[in-house]
Amino acid sequence: MKKETQGVGESNAKIILLGEHSVVYNQPSIAIPFPAAKVKAVVKETRDQTVISCEFYQGLLEDMPELLESLKETIRVTLKQLHKENYPLAITIESQIPAERGMGSSAAVSVATTRALFDFFNTDLTQENLLAIVDISEKIAHGNPSGLDALMTSSSSPYYYTKGQPFEPLKLNLDAYLVVGDTGKTGQTKEAVASISKKLTNTDSVNTKKRINQLGELAKKGRYFLENNEAAKLGLTMSHVHQLLNQLGVSSSELNRLVETAENNGAIGAKLTGGGRGGCMIALTHDKMSAEKIAQALADNGAKTTWVYDMRRGI
Fold first, then answer.
1. Is the whole model's pTM more than 0.85, yes or no?
2. What is the CA radius of gyration of the chain?
3. Residues annotated as catalytic (active site), given as ranges
4. Closest-CA residue to 8 (of 152, 116, 105, 81)
5. Cα separation of 22 and 218, whole Å?
6. In this protein, which residues make up the domain named GHMP kinase C-terminal (predicted)?
7. What is the pLDDT of residues 72-124, one digit of tens each?
């Protein structure tokens, strides 16, 4: 019996470790790949027309709803590059990354799908070409993306990023575990960014500028701690960052509750991650046992999903 040909592509989530919101004002940020949550795409040959199967849609490619326009564009652009526009395929996408939580869901889906299509047609895919394809789809999803999500969901290295400057790969040297807790509520990045912009024009502008600058300094220090195995100091930095973000008004009661829960259960630091006002929080701890205890406490206090990431091994 002839073995069925298939193409497989994977990607991972991303986490903003430090630098949320202040990155908008030319301060540095640090993002890390988060392989504890993955996307897998599988491509097989089928008859007649291309069909899609994913969490949000099952049906013909041409009938995909506007919500999935970025994925549709990823497939269209990739097949055009491969000169296979009319080749009927069955594309199945399984994602462990919740949408609209600041974990790079749309970029991760595009990365995995592009890799699977190139794999199916046995064609080499360079990182440069992958990022170019995903950037096209991310413009549909996010308007004017920085490219960070595409890079992080396709990479195994942390990156240091300042707006308008090249991404700098970082050495991950940290004997620690990262716990991620999902509030179950979508993040409100645009609203949060707009609220800080408004603060910069009112009577609180001096304090707002001061906090933005502090966030930048903490990201710079955090880089050193990440690269030099200073987990305890990185944890303190994370907690300080959360306090500043909360003062800037971009946290939420759910995020604050989960951050406090993590700290009360042994975390050496905790903060919101991403745009805030929903989405996810992260906590740092020294060992697996503590990480699992924190994850359970988060689940008991409202976290919809939790993940544990061994930063020592990148798994």
1. yes
2. 20
3. 149
4. 116
5. 11
6. 232-303
7. 999 999 999 999 999 999 999 999 999 889 899 999 999 999 999 999 999 99
